[in-house]
Design brief:
Strand order of the largest sheet: 4-15-11-17-18
Structural class: mainly beta
Number of helices: 3
Distance between the termini: 60 Å
Strand content: over 45%
Shape: globular
Helix content: under 10%
Largest sheet: 5 strands, mixed
């Protein structure tokens, strides 16, 4: 790379360089590696193979450069820190239409979205591991339980045979991490879901490794409304609506992480809301212009924590959990 500045008073010395720019770094006190949680059009399928192109600008890279005092331009080399993840969806049946997203959920850990780096460990060489590189700080280290890869235009996974599947690949970028247990969730444009849980280890290699990809192939079935998955307010509301049309008597909405509700939602009696881990919950927050209600209808089951934040005061409307009037034998 090459930088140029009109400032002619740059101090001479050894500088760290990184990409992408992080405006919050000045408050952290040291270099922060950052990584996104959502990726758009990073896929292979529907006649396109664009995941490498889509992921390239998402990688976090870092390096060093030496600058003489007063220099206005200098060359530098960046080394990739982030690794990548590829989830190959395999279809052995008839064509599966309108696939829109793949969610990767960390049952046994977290993905880093921001973490400090020890400058002494950055030497300008390829980064093959992160041993001693991360600087954990409770005030600045940030994590996420999930990553989402979605397409702008839903794609179809072609029909396969008993021996040769139709395939599509959804891809992600992530900072190096390793944990045991993860779930792959496939969703179509209408919010129907299909998922599979893995108890094995997910390891995202460092970007300088000879193979910096974690790959997983999974044979899938067409998403349905019987088991639904929600990871934010929009997907939760969509899942609640889809549950009303479920083909089974009871439909389960699996929570992936903490979901904050800022609008009222009514959960029908054929629904079970299920936390995937002890940390997964619903949070109701008060709003200035409206009351936020979570109505749980007769027959529904809530197997998760529901946290109600704030009280009605000073013009703010309260948030409420309404179990339809009482807690009887038909309520859980």
């Amino acid at each position: 790379g090459l930088f140029r500045t009109d400032l002619g008073t740059v101090f001479g010395g050894n500088y760290l360089v990184y990409y992408p720019f992080n405006e919050e770094m000045k408050d952290a006190g040291y270099l922060q590696a950052i990584s996104d949680t959502e990726f758009k059009d990073a896929y292979k399928g529907g006649g396109k193979n664009v995941y490498m192109e889509a992921l390239s600008p998402k990688h976090f890279m870092v390096g060093r450069t030496s600058i003489s005092g007063g220099t206005q331009s200098a060359e530098f080399t960046l080394r990739r820190l982030t690794g990548a993840i590829a989830i190959e969806l395999q279809n052995y049946g008839s064509e599966i239409k309108d696939i829109e997203s793949v969610v990767l959920y960390a049952n046994g850990g977290n993905f880093y979205t921001s973490v400090g780096l020890d400058a002494a460990k950055i030497n300008g060489q390829a980064i093959t591991n992160v041993n001693g590189l991360y600087v954990e700080n409770p005030e600045t280290t940030q994590t996420s339980k999930l990553l989402v890869s979605r397409v702008t235009t839903p794609i179809a996974i072609p029909a396969g045979s008993a021996y040769i599947p139709g395939t599509a690949v959804f891809a992600f970028v992530a900072l190096p991490v390793s944990f045991d247990g993860y779930t792959i969730v496939v969703q179509d444009k209408d919010g129907n879901s299909w998922a599979k849980k893995f108890d094995e280890t997910l390891t995202v290699p460092a970007g300088g490794s000879s193979n910096y990809w974690f790959t997983q192939s999974v044979a899938i079935q067409a998403p349905s409304a019987d088991n639904l998955y929600a990871y934010d307010e929009a997907s939760f509301k969509l899942a609640v609506e889809k549950a009303k049309s479920a083909t089974t008597t009871q439909s389960t909405i699996h929570l992936l992480g903490t979901i904050e509700l800022t609008e009222s939602v009514s959960v029908s009696g054929n629904v079970t809301i299920q936390a995937e881990t002890a940390d997964d919950k619903l949070v109701l927050t008060r709003q200035e212009d409206k009351t936020v209600n979570l109505w749980i209808m007769k027959g529904a089951t809530v197997n998760c924590d529901v946290e109600i934040q704030g009280q009605g005061c000073c013009g703010l409307r309260p948030a409420t959990l309404d179990m339809n009037g009482n807690l009887g034998a038909e309520y859980t």
